[in-house]
Design goal:
Layout (H helix, E strand, L loop, with lengths): L24 H18 L1 H21 L4 E9 L21 H15 L2 H11 L5 H4 L7 H10 L2 H8 E5 L5 E8 L2 H58 L7 H41 L7 H5 L1 H23 L5 H93 L4 E5 L12 H26 L6 H8 L3 E6 L13 H4 L4 H16 L7 E6 L6 H14 L4 E5 L7 H4 L8 H5 L5 H4 L1 E2 L5 E4 L8 H5 L2 H13 L2 E5 L8 H6 L4 E7 L5 H13 L4 E9 L8 H16 L8
Parallel strand pairs: 5-12, 6-10, 6-11, 7-9, 7-10, 11-12
Antiparallel strand pairs: 1-3, 1-4, 2-3, 8-9
Helix pairs in contact: 2-13, 4-7, 4-8, 8-12, 9-12, 11-12, 14-24, 16-17, 16-25
């Protein structure tokens, strides 16, 4: 019987005529998402139940919680107190800080805020150690027990439990939060914590300043003693070494200047001596050649120049007189005498100038000797001072260091006293805490939302866990994964009133229904499994009872018969036979009768109301079914049936119950393993597959029976046949729609 419905490929998991024969990653992702959505929809009841329980529990718990009120006070914490006395006066703990030092500073301040010391100050100020309501002791009815609990209660622990510190990002502002049952007390505690923290911070600074002042005062006395001692030793050294200047450096400077002056003078004298020696040598040469008049000194001498000018004048006068008076005239003699006197004066002056250079040279040499002596004395004095400096320098450095130390300590001491007198603080209140108008905890909306989300999450987890624990097969993928064989198709669940006849004959009564279409798909897949070697003898079995083997055998036989093949149904379930009941036949004659040679095979074969469909009932139930199936007679019977019919379908017992199915599986051409949706476990189906393969049976495929198409949990096939059934139902041929 030809149909236009899609066929299931026996060797592939993808249905033919689907949108794509090869799944892409997107298809796989969509299929996976759809699978999980189907799981969640299938387990929606458990998700709803868990969500409702958790939501109700959260609501009850939130409503029963004690209301708490949060008061907030904002503080500004600076790295240091204001410098009101100028840049040079700073607090003892002041200093430049790096990023990590700043971070550590603020973390330390947060710990101070939450410290037991600050909490103890607040407890003392407000008398919280006697406040029974604050300590939570009002619930104790017995006065004696309450009194004992009051003695052992620690108010600082309670206060620190209510206190939180939250720094404001990218600022020096810190929010101090107090969460208490009483809104007025919460505001009072927050403001008091801020006040006591500021006071504690100031007291700590003052205590540090006081301790520093005392330490500096003690150090001043020690430094004064050291300074006096170092000055005495320095004075004694200067007196013993005749250092008259303020410092040895001054003496060294004087000696150095004197040494430089003597050295410069000696250099000048030696230069002059060289010049005089050259001049004396020149005079000696001129004397030897009687050329003193050529000496530059002689030429430049005013006396010589004057006498020579006079001599020229006298020579002119003498020449005039000779012309006028003659040689013997007295005037000529007088002129000659005067000329001789002038010449003598020139000679005397030349001789004096020559001797003057020699005398000057002698004087310079004497001066040089004296300067050399002075230079040597200055050097000795300088060496002596340098040797004294080795002992003087440590004494001088010690004295200067002590003087600087005492000066610095005195200045710092005054600064510390001034800082402590100012009582400046680096912490101030930015905003006072106000009485909160509404409770901060519990937040009913947030709590209910969290409960809802938590319940929903736990419900989904529970649904997934139950799905994983559910071992029953539900989908084609489950069957393929467990059986590791071809998936032949599904058979929808049939729901029909009992007065319409056996449910096994539903396909015969409604050949155009979705159930019939599914059976034809299974039939087609079996036909295409082996075209060269037709599957003439087929055994239909399952892992356990009540899984619809007989129904599938009958419906599949009807499908083969409707396709024009002469088909025989053999009831080999000799323990619980059902085929004779389906077709309304007697159980007095059947397969067991033929195997025991009580009847001939032709007498046991019965034709049904379905054209081309025969039945071989079980017959009387034998005491030893397995032995009958294991006989040579049964083998001959199966061979004879194969010669007479195109298809022989064996309805066998469950594999897990008895060994009959394994014996029969080794004698047929193929075995179809059946599983019931929602009932057959994966483990049972897997054991059945192993049992069949262990005996060498040819497992040709698997069928998923009793599928509820309305659940839409198997993807394409469920969707397709569900729509197909709905289409036929509109024509009045399909099964009644499930409400």
């Amino acid at each position: 019987m030809a149909t236009s419905t899609p066929q299931l490929r026996p060797l592939d998991t993808e249905p033919p005529n689907s949108p794509a024969t090869t799944r892409t990653e997107g298809d796989e992702l969509r299929a996976e998402v759809r699978r999980w959505l189907e799981i969640l929809l299938h387990r929606a009841w458990i998700i709803a139940a868990v969500t409702a329980i958790v939501f109700a529990a959260g609501a009850i718990r939130t409503l029963r919680e004690t209301k708490l009120y949060t008061a907030v006070v904002s503080l500004v914490i600076e790295l240091q107190a204001p410098k009101v006395l100028g840049d040079q006066v700073q607090d003892v703990s002041d200093g430049q800080a790096s990023f990590w030092q700043t971070k550590d500073f603020f973390e330390t301040q947060f710990l101070y805020l939450k410290s037991k010391a600050v909490a103890a100050r607040v407890v003392r100020k407000l008398g919280l150690d006697r406040d029974e309501d604050f300590l939570g002791l009002t619930k104790i009815a017995d006065p004696a027990e309450r009194a004992n609990a009051l003695k052992t209660a620690d108010a600082t622990v309670v206060l620190r439990g209510e206190l939180r510190v939250e720094p404001v990002r990218d600022s020096h502002v810190v929010r101090v939060l107090i969460e208490d049952r009483d809104p007025k007390r919460a505001a009072l505690l927050a403001n008091t914590v801020a006040e006591e923290y500021i006071a504690y911070n100031l007291d700590e600074k003052l205590s540090l300043s006081h301790a520093a002042s005392e330490w500096l005062h003690d150090r001043i006395g020690d430094l004064e003693k050291k300074l006096v001692d170092s000055e005495d030793r320095l004075y004694t050294f200067k007196r013993e070494n005749e250092i008259l200047t303020a410092t040895i450096e001054d003496s060294q400077s004087i000696v150095a200047r004197r040494l430089a002056a003597v050295s410069d003078s000696l250099t000048e004298v030696r230069k002059k001596r060289a010049e005089l020696e050259a001049k004396v040598n020149q005079v000696k040469i001129a004397r030897d050649i009687d050329a003193l008049s050529a000496l530059p000194e002689v030429i430049a001498s005013p006396v010589v120049q004057a006498q020579r000018a006079q001599m020229l004048t006298l020579a002119q006068e003498l020449a005039d007189a000779r012309t006028r008076y003659g040689e013997e005239h007295p005037k000529i003699a007088a002129l000659r005498e005067r000329q001789a006197q002038a010449q003598g004066t020139v000679v005397a002056e030349e001789s004096r100038l020559a001797r003057a250079s020699e005398l000057e040279l002698a004087l310079v040499k004497e001066t040089e000797k004296n300067l050399e002596k002075l230079l040597e004395g200055a050097k000795r004095e300088a060496y002596l001072l340098n040797s004294k400096e080795v002992k003087y320098a440590p004494l001088r450095r010690e004295q200067e260091t002590n003087a600087k130390n005492i000066e610095m300590v005195l200045r710092r001491w005054k600064e510390v006293d001034l800082s402590s007198m100012l009582r400046t603080n680096n912490v101030s209140v930015l905003d006072q805490a106000e009485v909160p108008g509404s409770a901060s905890s519990p937040n009913l909306k947030v709590a209910l939302l969290i409960s809802l989300l938590l319940g929903l999450g736990l419900g989904i987890v529970a649904a997934v866990i139950l799905e994983q624990l559910d071992d029953a097969i539900e989908t084609q993928e489950d069957v393929e994964r467990v059986t590791r064989t071809s998936f032949l198709g599904i058979i929808p669940e049939v729901r029909e009133p009992d007065n319409k006849g056996p449910v096994e004959l539903y396909v015969h009564r409604k050949p155009h229904s979705s159930v019939a279409e599914c059976l034809r798909t299974v039939r087609t897949n079996l036909l295409f499994l082996s075209t060269d070697r037709p599957l003439q003898k087929l055994m239909i079995t399952s892992s356990g009872p009540q899984e619809g083997k007989t129904t599938v055998v009958v419906d599949l036989g009807i499908a083969f018969a409707q396709g024009g093949q002469k088909t025989l149904l053999v009831d080999t379930d000799m323990r619980r036979p059902r085929l004779h009941k389906v077709f309304g036949l007697g159980s007095d004659l059947g397969l067991s009768s033929v195997l025991l040679d009580e009847k001939k095979l032709g007498e046991a074969l019965r034709q049904t109301e379905v054209p081309n469909l025969w039945v071989l009932p079980c017959g009387p139930i034998p005491p030893n079914p397995a032995e009958l199936l294991h006989t040579e007679r049964f083998l001959h019977v199966t061979q004879e049936l194969a010669r007479r019919f195109d298809r022989v379908l064996f309805d066998s017992p469950p594999v897990a119950a008895v060994t009959d199915a394994q014996i029969l599986a080794s004698l047929v051409d193929g075995v179809v393993l059946l599983g019931k949706a929602g009932k057959t476990s994966k483990e049972a189906l897997s054991r059945a597959r192993r049992s069949l393969t262990d005996v060498g049976a040819r497992l040709v495929g698997a069928v998923l029976n009793s599928v509820d198409l309305s659940r839409r949990r198997a993807g394409y096939y469920y969707d397709y046949y569900g729509r197909y059934g709905a289409y036929l139902d509109r024509d009045g041929d399909g099964p009644p729609e499930k409400k």
